[in-house]
Amino acid sequence: RGTMKSLRFISAEAFVSNAEFARKSLGGVAHDLFPLLFKASYLLEQGEVIHELVKNWPLVDFNIGKLLGTTVDYQEDLSHRTCSVCLESCLTGLRDYVLNQSSPYMKKLKVVDLTGIKDVEVQFCECKKRMGRWTRTQLLSKLCLELLVYLQQTQCNPGTFEISIDVLIDLYVTERNYELVVQALLKKCYCPLKICCVAFRSDNLALQKFFYIIKLTDPSLLRKLEIVHNVRLEMEHLEILFNSIHFPLLMSLTLPARTFNVRRFTDADEGILTNIGEKMGEMTQLTELSISFSILTGRIRKLLSPLKTPLKMLDVSNCSLNHADMAYLANSFHANHLEALDLSGHNIHDLYPSTFFKLLSHSSSVLRSLTLEDCNIQDTHLNMLILSLSPCRKLQEFKFIGNPLSSQALKQLFTFLCELPMLKTVEFPVPKDCYPTGITYPIDDASLCRFDQRKYESVAEELNLILLQANREDVKASTPLFGSYDAAVEETNNELGAYLIKSFKETLEKFTTSL
Length: 515
What we know:
One of its GO terms (cellular component) is cytoplasm. InterPro entries: LRR_dom_sf, LRRC14/PRAME. Keywords: Leucine-rich repeat, Repeat. The protein has 515 residues and is an alpha/beta fold. The protein is built from 21 helices and 13 strands. α1 packs across α3.
């Protein structure tokens, strides 16, 4: 069983359960037992012990993903526990490692990798308080600056200034933590803890500030770049970004809504799009691309054909793709490698049923995640949908909320879905017959919750019974009305909400002035 503990792990739990005893006894512990004690401390949320372990870490590297992942002594993966108590103890322990002059161990630590932490919706830690990516960014930056101030004001062992530890982290920057992160990055060369940005997410940030901070992160190390929501990046800005900065290791790129809008294209804009495609072609590691909510009608070939590496993940939701775009995708070399595909917001069965079928048949041997939200999939399209999905034997995740399907059609679809052996997650729509007669799709936010709750619960129960009778209790089926959980948005929603209200107020003021 996944939760089986070895005798070694049970002994480690007993050792760390008394923080005072563990602290006093740590000097006599063999180096190779530190990882075991760390995972046991994390499971029991022993913040004091975690702090002491990191403060005295005797090994060359500290990789939190590996330390908390599946191990021989305890197979459960704890890397999805973003426990605030544990992570804060971990980071403050790292700061105190630099300052610790009484450790019985020689300072060998060279690399700390914090990128293995997974932010998820449900927390299993007892404190129930998560430390998300934004807060981790904030805390590490703060600790680095505090460390510098302390070293400048205190007489330290000369050896302290020779310590150099690369701290690999996924940074998340918004207006609220921008100044702090900038200061930490600017002073990186003087600090023993060197922030090494592996992934960068930016939201609610002025374009000028984004351009400034992205250069400070050392883009040559960047593997993932997410520019989302409230960063007003348009196509000409993206061209400037790609012309001025090289991203040799970039594997994943997410662009904000409305980056592209071909409806107002000029001849010069066509040239810019061509240049962007060519620059993306130079990113030989790029395998994940998200360009949702841009208008790219008829231009997918121009953007994607220069890529030399096949894409494994493509999100072109709500991009107003036409038949030529779908035909390109279905026939491109990307099709055979797509593990995750999002075509939400496209009327696939009416506009391009055969090319959609061809695209899925080409990607079926590797496809793990498929999202078809608000695609106007109706009962009449059900047989075609089932036929398209049949070869996708590796599909693990299927999301299709917002489609006008009846209760009966959903039951038929779920009976088929039970046959997909790898399936784990299904997000299905509220059945059309649960809404008042005459409801139009896509359903606006005001009408989204106006359905017969009892009838929906009855249908959901029947759908779960279908899974149960097919021995598919491993499949989680749900209806997230307002979209899937996004840990980053959840953590900063107060700031983003305030920004949206401010933007709305400014728009109203401009409108009033013009009147």
